[in-house]
Write a structure and sequence with these properties.
By secondary structure, the chain is an alpha/beta fold. Helix content is about 20%, strand content about 30%. It has helices at about 40-45, 110-115, 125-135, 160-165, 190-195, 230-245, 250-260, 345-355; strands at about 5-10, 15-20, 30-35, 55, 60, 70-75, 75, 90, 95, 120, 140-145, 170, 180-185, 200-205, 215-220, 245-250, 265-280, 285-300, 305-310, 310-315, 320-325, 330. InterPro entries: Anth_synth/Amidotransfase, CarbamoylP_synth_ssu, CarbamoylP_synth_ssu_N, CarbP_synth_ssu_N_sf, Class_I_gatase-like, CPSase_GATase1, GATASE.
Length: about 350
C-alpha cells in the first residue's frame, strides 16, 4: 500500500478540494489557473510565464511519461524552457507513479521534490476547472496534512518580469545579423528558433537600454504577470520604434509592444492556456492552431490608427497579435515556438528574419 498524505487546495472564495500529495510536502500559494493541454508538463512547469501560479491540468493523467534529463545544447536547456520550475504547484486528477518513456530519467514526483514544488492528485479537476471558468482565475493555497498553513499570495501585484529575467547580457549563436532579445521571462525554444536561423542573439535584461548597442532587429519575449509592471521595457521599446529597425514580440512581447504604441491591456477572466487555441490571420481565411499561456490581452479598441490587429482568437474574439501598417513591427499573443504545442506558426520567425 502506497502511503500518501492528504493535501488540500483552498481557493480565496472558500471553496476547498481534497486530494493526495505526490510532490514536495510543503505549503504554497499563488494564482490558480488551468491548462487544457494533453501533454507537455515538463515544458509548462519550466515556462517562466507560470511564475507565481498553481497549475491545474485538465487532462486526467499526469506523470505517465516521467521527465527528461537536465542537459544543455547550444547554451540552453535541451528539453526544458528554463533552468528550474516556475509554477508554485501542479494539480491533477490522477498521477501515474509508474512512468514509461525512452527519454525519461526519473519520475515527475522526484523532480518536484528536488525543486521543492508541491503536487496534488485525486482532485476533481473537471469541477475545479468549471468553477474557475465561471468565477475566473483566483488566488489559492495548498496545505499538506500535518504541515503549516500559509496566506494567500497575488503574483499580479509583483513585478514578475523583473523576477524571472536574466540579470546580465548573454550571447547565443553566431551570424552576420544581430537580434537583441529582451528577456521578460523567455522560453528557451525562442532562443533555439532564432539561433537555428543563423542569427546572433544578444539576450538582455528586461530593463536594459538596448538602444545603446548595435543590432539589426529587436525581439521581445514572453513573460509572466501584469504588463503594467514592465514600464521600463515599454520606454525602451518606444526608443526602438523611433530607430525603426524590425521588431517582433511574443505573448508578453505583444502586450508590451502594444503599450509602447499607445494601446491598453486588460486581464482576461481565466486566460488562455492550452495547445489548441484557434487564431485567424486578419484579412485572410487562414486559421492556425496555437499554443498559448497568458492571462492578459491587448484591447483592440485602443490601438492607434497606424496599428491594426494581426491575429484574432476564434473562440472569444480577443487580440492575438498586432502590426504596424507601414513599419516592420509585429507581434503574436500566442507561442509560435510552441514547446510544448503545435508548430503551425513557427513561420513567424522566418518572417521576422526576412525583415533584418
Amino acid at each position: 500500500m502506497r502511503h500518501t498524505k492528504r493535501a488540500f487546495l483552498m481557493l480565496e472564495d472558500g471553496t476547498t478540494f481534497e486530494g493526495k500529495s505526490f510532490g514536495h510536502e510543503s505549503s504554497t500559494a499563488g494564482e490558480v489557473v488551468f491548462n487544457t493541454a494533453m501533454t507537455g508538463y515538463p515544458e509548462s512547469l519550466t515556462d517562466p510565464s507560470y511564475e507565481g501560479q498553481i497549475l491545474v491540468t485538465t487532462y486526467p493523467i499526469l506523470g505517465n511519461y516521467g521527465v527528461p534529463p537536465h542537459r544543455e545544447k547550444d547554451d540552453v536547456s535541451e528539453y526544458y524552457e528554463s533552468d528550474h520550475i516556475h509554477c508554485r504547484a501542479i494539480v491533477a486528477q490522477d498521477y501515474s507513479f509508474d512512468h514509461s518513456h525512452w527519454q525519461a530519467d526519473r519520475p515527475l514526483a522526484m523532480w518536484l521534490n528536488e525543486e521543492r514544488i508541491p503536487g496534488i492528485y485525486g482532485i476533481d479537476t473537471r469541477a475545479l476547472t468549471k468553477h474557475l471558468r465561471e468565477h475566473g482565475s483566483m488566488l489559492g493555497k495548498i496545505v499538506i496534512e500535518g504541515g503549516d498553513d500559509c496566506g494567500f499570495y497575488d503574483p499580479n501585484l509583483e513585478n514578475l518580469v523583473g523576477k524571472v529575467s536574466c540579470t546580465e547580457v548573454e550571447t547565443h549563436g553566431d551570424g552576420d545579423k544581430t537580434v537583441v532579445l529582451v528577456d521578460c521571462g523567455v522560453k528557451h525554444n525562442i532562443i533555439r528558433c532564432l539561433t537555428r536561423r543563423g542569427v546572433r542573439v544578444v539576450r538582455v535584461p528586461w530593463d536594459y537600454d538596448f538602444t545603446s548597442i548595435p543590432y539589426d532587429g529587436l525581439f521581445i519575449s514572453n513573460g509572466p504577470g501584469n504588463p503594467d509592471m514592465a514600464s521600463a521595457t515599454v520606454e525602451n521599446i518606444r526608443k526602438a520604434m523611433a530607430i525603426g529597425k524590425p521588431i517582433c514580440g511574443i505573448c508578453m512581447g505583444n502586450q508590451l509592444l502594444a503599450k509602447a504604441a499607445g494601446a491598453k491591456t486588460y486581464k482576461l477572466k481565466y486566460g488562455h492556456r492550452s495547445h489548441n487555441q484557434p487564431v485567424r490571420r486578419v484579412g485572410t481565411d487562414k486559421c492556425f492552431i496555437t499554443s498559448q499561456n497568458h492571462g492578459f490581452a491587448v484591447d483592440n479598441d485602443t490601438l492607434p490608427e497606424d496599428w491594426e490587429p494581426l491575429f484574432v482568437n476564434m473562440n472569444d474574439g480577443t487580440n492575438e497579435g498586432i502590426r504596424h501598417k507601414e513599419k516592420p513591427f509585429f507581434s503574436a499573443q500566442f507561442h509560435p515556438e510552441a514547446s510544448s504545442g503545435p508548430k503551425d506558426t513557427e513561420f513567424l520567425f522566418d518572417e521576422f528574419i526576412s525583415m533584418l
